[in-house]
Amino acid sequence: MQQAIHVPQSIQLPLFEAFLAEPVLPGLKASAQARQKNSDPERFSELSLRGTPGHCQSLLAPVLRDLSEEVDARWLTLIAPPTSLTQAWLRDAGLNRERILLLHPSSNKSALQLTCEALRMGHSHTVVSWLGSLNVTLRQQLIRAATVGNAQSLNIRLG
């Protein structure tokens, strides 16, 4: 004969309700709301992709496609993209090529200089660059330039 085990009912919030509950620390919710109201949109983002070039391109395609379809009438500017991101690839990935500007570094301007200039000018809603790993100083430089031009900077790091 099996014995019935009685487990006392404890008060426990379901998983999702626990995350939606009021914060435990007083003032946490108020300070989060204040930060949200007073902060500018994030001006710098980074995306790190590792794997084969084809796999990385498959992951990158929807991001660039969404950016090329932005409501903002300004350019989506790509600076120093890998050689595999050709006009044919842009077309095949479904990007709006009429809204994309491709810039390549030259002996006169580095990729970083082009990126900062494109951000400051404000003709682009987003400037996507392939600058590799960036230190804090270079990130701050990109954030300042993006703030001046009311743009977003997205750095793609391929591993």
Automatic annotation (TrEMBL):
Highest taxon, organism lineage: Bacteria
InterPro entries: Cell_div_suppressor_SulA, P-loop_NTPase
Gene Ontology biological process terms from the UniProt entry: negative regulation of cell division; SOS response
Gene3D superfamilies: P-loop containing nucleotide triphosphate hydrolases (3.40.50.300)
SUPFAM superfamilies: P-loop containing nucleoside triphosphate hydrolases
Keywords on record: Transferase
Gene Ontology molecular function terms on file: transferase activity
NCBIfam families: SOS_SulA_aeru
Protein name: CDP-glycerol--UDP-pyrophosphoryl-N-acetylglucosaminyl-N-acetylmannosamine glycerophosphotransferase
Origin species: Pseudomonas putida
Source species taxonomy: Bacteria, Pseudomonadati, Pseudomonadota, Gammaproteobacteria, Pseudomonadales
